[in-house]
Amino acid sequence: MAGTRFATVWDPDEGWMTATWFQGPAPDFIAASRPASRAGGSILHFLGGQTADVVGERAVAQTKIGAPQNDRHRNQRRDGRVISTEERNRATGHGTAEAVAMKAIVQDSYGEAEDVMRLAEIDRPEIGEGEVLLRVRAAGVDRGVWHLMTGLPYLLRVIGYCGVRAPRTRVRGSDVAGRVEAVGADVTGLRPGDEVYGVADGAFAEYAVATADKLAPKPRNLSAEQAAAVPISGLTALQAVRDGGQVQPGQKVLIIGASGGVGTFAVQVARAYGAHVTGVCSRAKVDLVRSLGADNVIDYAVGDIADDGQRYDVVLDIGGHRSLTHLRRALTATGRLVIIGSETGGRWLGGFDRSLRAPLLSRFVRQTLTMLANSENASDLMVLTDLIESDEVTPAIDRIYPLSETPAAIRYLIDGHAQGKVVVTV
Ligand SMILES: NC(=O)c1ccc[n+]([C@@H]2O[C@H](COP(=O)([O-])OP(=O)(O)OC[C@H]3O[C@@H](n4cnc5c(N)ncnc54)[C@H](OP(=O)(O)O)[C@@H]3O)[C@@H](O)[C@H]2O)c1
């Protein structure tokens, strides 16, 4: 392309890489040669000493020079050594005002929560165009937090979803409910003081940054803790029922993993769409799933999904990692399977290969076999708000932990104890 040239840049997480630099009198953007981190981007150190922050998401990232940096990278010296915020402040004479400090749960390396996460005081994040600074009131805990915290399965590092050797950003947490503190240029429809919920970067902290298109006004009938339980699990459930499953009134829907974060929403959303719902979970959580409105509940320790000859129009697969053959046996001849996910413990693919095989096999059979990649967007949050405010959906919250006990909250979820959602209050 005329007017462009390739520049070799240094990414502290990735090593040397190539980027296309769109030349101009004062270059505003470069296009990075790899996907940006979902969790908030990474700094590219130019040979000339300029820095840039990836602000895009997935695909080809647009990189804006001079955009805010995350703490790890702001504190990373040219020689690669990471210094403390205090050390940087002494060197630069900046950042000492109490007003810009905040408490956050930080991590600098991959591992389990209790090994790598700690409460620390770090700089409050800064916002750029289209972004919103939130005073966090509560943050939801979900499986995605664990994946980004451990960098597992490795596939996530390979596809650029997270850093190769270490996390790109220090603060985890995506589900958020809080008050708008400040808005960046180009943000319309949100003002300081608004109570919102949605998806942010670094919600396990007193302040977090979100893009405005991932936030919506908090449902009027929910507390901040309840609202923070909704976004990712609720959006996933809605999109699985409405888009993947295309659930119609009167259809029979099987929800495998009905007692978890996604499943507890899926049961309620499927009921709201008029379905006859059968949930699958462990014995200890049967009562919970029934209380959410499931017509039948199968305890997976004693019953199989296809045991009783029952066939379902739609199967939502959220836990247990059954084979495609097994899942298809529970479907009607033209039924729809939606694979949302499951945890296999596999360090390389984490069972993701099954999700990829489903749409391939789907070409050769009458059933429709799909996988879901959820979309975090404000308009679907508004759909959830309607369902919540009309009392058709209510978040099922098991435990609420204080910010300082975030590692224990993650452990509780990962060990399989949670009945529904786990939330951190800030
Ligand atoms: N595709 C996407 O966009 C997307 C979005 C969000 C999440 N996910 C993935 O979806 C999965 C579930 O997420 P989540 O937040 O709901 O997790 P979660 O809260 O930990 O729930 C896991 C569920 O799986 C159930 N389960 C475990 N073993 C089972 C078995 N053998 N048979 C049937 N059910 C079983 C659990 O039931 P019991 O607790 O009763 O044993 C629980 O209901 C994760 O792998 C997550 O990464 C994908």
UniProtKB/TrEMBL annotation:
Pfam families: ADH_N, ADH_zinc_N_2. InterPro entries: ADH-like_N (IPR013154), ER (IPR020843), GroES-like_sf (IPR011032), NAD(P)-bd_dom_sf (IPR036291), Quin_OxRdtase/zeta-crystal_CS (IPR002364), YIM1/Zinc_Alcohol_DH_Fams (IPR050700). The keyword NADP does not apply. The keyword Oxidoreductase applies. GO terms for molecular function: oxidoreductase activity; zinc ion binding. Keywords: Oxidoreductase. Residues 113-424 form the Enoyl reductase (ER) domain. Gene3D superfamilies: Medium-chain alcohol dehydrogenases, catalytic domain, NAD(P)-binding Rossmann-like Domain. This is NADPH:quinone reductase-like Zn-dependent oxidoreductase. It comes from Pseudonocardia hierapolitana.
